[in-house]
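User: Okay, second chain of the day. Same drill as before: sequence in, structure tokens out.
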Amino acid sequence: MEEHLRKKIEEVPKKGVILFICSPDRYNETRNFILKIWTETFSKRGIYLSLNRPYENLIQNFSQSKIDHSQLFFLDNVSRSESDVDNCYFLGSDLKKLHLSLCSSVKEKSPDFMLMDSLNDLFLEDENRAKKLLEEYIKKAKVNEINGLILLIKEPIIDEIIDVHKQDIDNVVEVY
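Assistant: Same drill. Structure tokens below.
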């Protein structure tokens, strides 16, 4: 998997939007490999938009997987915390707050990439809000000329996402 994924990543435009579609059993492995490539191999700084896992869980997983998360700033849309930490804003499932935080984070942090992980749950919960967030995310990546990485688990709704946004997505990488 790693060699296939590495080749696909190397083919990607330096400022493009890339949709990574993977099977549920390859999800963590794919996410971790993507982050290692961007933060370690490419030495890039990024913003990690977490729509399905709390910050603490991610940090623990990345530490166990030997991923240098010091190059990442997190927008945690899962946890409900009273106060933010140096490298994370806790948004508590507030998509309006997520949009504002994404805008300010891109401006303040000047990232090389953003990783959205993952829209699947949001699509099941509220498809219209998920579509709007995806459109805003793609626009933010394009306008700011940074890589917009989107990680999704293969489900029937994914084909619809690709069809609707295929003119805005520069590359689709499937990992099974």
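Strands lie at 17-22, 46-50, 72-76, 88-90, 113-117, 147-153, 171-175.

User: Thanks, on to the next one.
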